[in-house]
Structure formats: structure tokens, C-alpha cells
Design goal:
Two copies of one chain form a homodimer.
Chain A (H helix, E strand, L loop, with lengths): L3 E2 L2 E2 L1 E3 L13 E8 L13 E8 L7 E4 L3 E7 L1 E6 L12 E6 L2 E5 L5 E4 L6 E8 L3 E4 L10 E2 L4 H6 L10
Antiparallel strand pairs in A: 1-2, 4-5, 5-12, 6-13, 7-10, 7-12, 8-9, 8-11, 13-14
């Protein structure tokens, strides 16, 4: 059966969902569920998002952190996760390096600066679950926290909100 | 690198995670992330869970509802989702029937009674993301709401809570 619920078919084909890149080279993004876009009522104030993303061979996410935890499941491919678990007080500092692989799962703790990349020879497919909140990006691992760029409102905020919310500072 | 965070390695192999069945025949369950088990701090009061489940050929979940929305991604296999979108006030009533398939995604609305099953010839693999709260099960689609069984505390509640929380009633 094919009925519409809140303007969407209940069951959707992931390969036919709209894709975006957030202007990150090599990133492909689809929103599977989102508090604002798809009406997850219980979660509306918490910005719960379920995302499917692909990093093309050799691509990488920005070095960033956010004030929410983030759970990952790698569906296909392998890559590297860089993560600062014991940050220098002024800048992220040298991150730990973790191998991530097909069928691996990990949870990025709140405000730990991190970055994922894919190897040069293959793409990395993963699904992520997060309570999206403030997101800060770094040019490198030694950029002071105070200089990190706050990306807010972001992509879907810009679509959904009429008035930007109040910014917070580190 | 292989370091422990809160007693767990940061990156875990999903195929080596503990598996359970919640006593549902044909169900295999692994918790990828959970508010109580894995310390998703932001979410602690909201019971956020990320689960990977498999239904063996011909298996089905109980007919149930819960006071939270639930997002699904089918990783492999196909099956049927039964869902009551306009419930009879006294019992669930005849459900709508939706085909679910590999790479499909769907969001079960709050308190809609639902059931998923796998076909006789193959298993169904899916990942689900939910704010777990009260869960009620039905013996069939015409069992009165007032007779539905409240399963609370559930599996992991029983492990994690020392004192059961207050029950609510329909």
C-alpha cells in the first residue's frame, strides 16, 4: 500500500531520496528521518536526525565538534576516524586515529573534535544518528577553540526556520 | 588505535556485539548505542536507542505500539509492515499493509500499532532508531487497547534500573 503521511509516503526508497553535499567535497548526504523535516514530534526540541552519508574515495569531513553525541554504523567500505579524547584546553591537538570498517559502530562523545575520511581506493558508506545542536569546524588540529567556526543555523535549519536561534559561544 | 571509552572500545565490530532475542522467536537483536547502556548523556532521559535486528525467515514482531516515534532502515531482505494509521477507538483494527525492501526507510508514528514480518524464504535485516518509552503488545488486531499488555520495565530496563518506574495506563 502506498499512502501519504504528513506529505511523505510512509515507506521511502533511500536511493530516491534527495541528496545534498553541504558543500563538502566528496560528501553525499540523505536525511532518512529528521525532527524538523519529517515531524519526529517527540524529538522536535532535540533535533534528532538519522542520516545516510557517503564519502567518495579520498574525501574527508571537516574537523569539527558538536554539543551532542553521535552514533555511527559503517555500512560499506573502510576509513579512518580521527578523534581527540583528551583535548588540549586551547585547541584540539593531535587526534587519536581509529580504523573504521564495514559493520563497525562507534559513538562520538559530546564535543570531542573529530574527522572521518575514506581511503583513496574506495568510498565509505555510513549511517549516523545524532541530536544535532551547535557545530564548530576547525581548519586544522591546532586551531584554537575560540577561532573555530560556528555553523549555525545549518543547511536544514536555514530551510526550516524563519528566525535564526540565538548563537552560543564557547 | 584501540582504546577504551567508558568501558567499551570506541570502534566496535557489530558482528561481535552481544545478541539477544527478547524472547521473540526468530528475532536477533544487537544494541549499537543506547542511552542507558552506553551513556548517551544528552539523551539519557529520552531512552534513545540504535538497534540492529534480524528477523529469521517467516518471523514476525509482536503487534505493538509505543509512545515514541521509530525510524527504520532496511539493510537487506524484504518483508511487510502492518500499521494502523486510523485506529478504531477500542482496538487497532485492520492494519494497512506496506511492502518494505532493502534500502527502504520508514517512520512509525507515535502510538500507531504495528508489526513487521519477513517472508518465508529470506531473513530481514534492519536498523532502528527510537526514543523508547512505554510499549504495549496485542495478541491480534482486534484486542481492545485496554487489554494490551504493557511491557515495562523491558529487557534493558530490567538490567539498568534498580527500581521500576511508575506505570501509565491508556
Amino acid at each position: 500500500m502506498w499512502i501519504m503521511i504528513k506529505g511523505f509516503p510512509l515507506v521511502r526508497n533511500v536511493s530516491k531520496l534527495p541528496q545534498g553535499s553541504f558543500r563538502i567535497p566528496g560528501l553525499s548526504h540523505s536525511t532518512l528521518a529528521g525532527s524538523v523535516l519529517h515531524g519526529m514530534k517527540e524529538a522536535r526540541h532535540y533535533f534528532v536526525e538519522v542520516w545516510l552519508q557517503t564519502l567518495a574515495p579520498g574525501a574527508r569531513t571537516p574537523i569539527h565538534r558538536h554539543s551532542c553525541e553521535e552514533a555511527f554504523l559503517v555500512l560499506k567500505g573502510s576509513g579512518t576516524l580521527y578523534l581527540t579524547t583528551n583535548m588540549h584546553p586551547e585547541f584540539p591537538g593531535n587526534p587519536h586515529e581509529f580504523r573504521i570498517f564495514s559493520n563497525s559502530t562507534f559513538l562520538v562523545p559530546i564535543d570531542d573534535v573529530h574527522q572521518a575520511n575514506s581511503p583513496l581506493y574506495s568510498p565509505l558508506f555510513f549511517i549516523l544518528f545524532l541530536f544535532f545542536w551547535r557545530r564548530f569546524t576547525y581548519d586544522d588540529w591546532f586551531m584554537p577553540h575560540t577561532a573555530a567556526k560556528l555553523l549555525f543555523p545549518i543547511f536544514w535549519d536555514a530551510v526550516c526556520y524563519q528566525t535564526p536561534l540565538e548563537r552560543d559561544e564557547l
